[in-house]
Structures are given as structure tokens and as C-alpha cells.
Amino acid sequence: MTHTRIRKFNTRDTYPEQNLDNDLCQAVATRGGTTLWMRGQCPQNLDDAKSIDSHDPVEQTHKVMQNIRQLVEEAGGSMEHLVKVVVYITDVRHREAVYRTMGEYIKGVHPVSTGLVVQALARPEWLVEIDATAVIPD
Questions:
Q1: Which of 8, 55, 101, 115 maximizes the CB count within 10 A of its CB?
Q2: Domains annotated on the chain, with CATH
Q3: Which of 14-23, 31-40, 68-77, 126-135 has the lowest mean pLDDT?
Q4: Sign for the pseudo-dihedral over CA of 138, 108, 10, 38
Q5: How many CB atoms are closer than 10 A to CB 137?
Q6: What is the pTM of this model?
Q7: Half-sphere exposure of residue 107, counting CA atoms within 13 Å on the CB side?
């Protein structure tokens, strides 16, 4: 099974005023497979739920994306099976750093993406949360 990525684009073209380089698309069509619905991932360890000791949006995003990758792999997939991400940030000034870091993990993948700036996340030290969906082939 191959996911059909509809209207692929890169954020460097869509948002030329920002220093972004994310491969995204407008829609993803899937057929068959196993859908993996992940809860919003935060900058905390999956095993003990302890937050990482950092208030840097880049470091927090690395941890979030590492968690997503780990969950996808535990389900038998890989990052190329991501079809959607929803990004929540608490400060619009962190957008570029968060998206640039996330882009390192989705290069060539082209998931659909929604981004929101929210007042707060579940813990005051969290700057970013990303929920993701993957469809893993049979």
C-alpha cells in the first residue's frame, strides 16, 4: 500500500517570509492498513511521563518527534507512514523553531498538518504538543 499524497508542497514556498522547510500536502488518501491514532505527544519520556529538563522549543520538539517515531515503530511502521500532524504551540514566536525541528523528522513524508497557537498545555513547562496519525500497511 502506498499513501497517495495530494497537492504536495514545501513551506519554504508557501511561507517565504519564514525560515521553514517542511514537506507537507493538502490531503492524504490511504487504503487498507492499520490506522495508528496517537495522543498528543509532549516533551516527556514515554516510560515514566517525566518532562524533559528543557524550556527550549527546539529540544522539546525533538523529544516530541522522537516519541512519535518510537510509537510508530512500536506499532510496526516508520515515519513515512505518518498521514497527519496537529501542532499546538503556546507562543507564536516558537513557530519557526518548532516547525523547523519537526521538519527534520518528516522530510520527504508530506503529511497533512494543522497548527494552532494555544493559551496553555497540560503542564506549564510545555511549549509544544503534537498529535499524529499514521496508517501502517498490512
A1: 101
A2: 4-136 (3.30.1330.40)
A3: 14-23
A4: positive
A5: 15
A6: 0.90
A7: 6
Q: Rounded to an integer, what distance in angstroms lies between the CA atom of residue 30 and that of residue 136? A: 9
Distance CA 106, CA 115 (A): 15
Which residues in 115-136 are b (16+ Cβ under 10 Å) and which e? eeeeeebeeeebbbbbbbbbbb
| Residues contacting 2, CB < 8 A, separation 6+ | none
| Euclidean distance between CA atoms 123 and 56, whole angstroms | 15
pLDDT at 112: 95
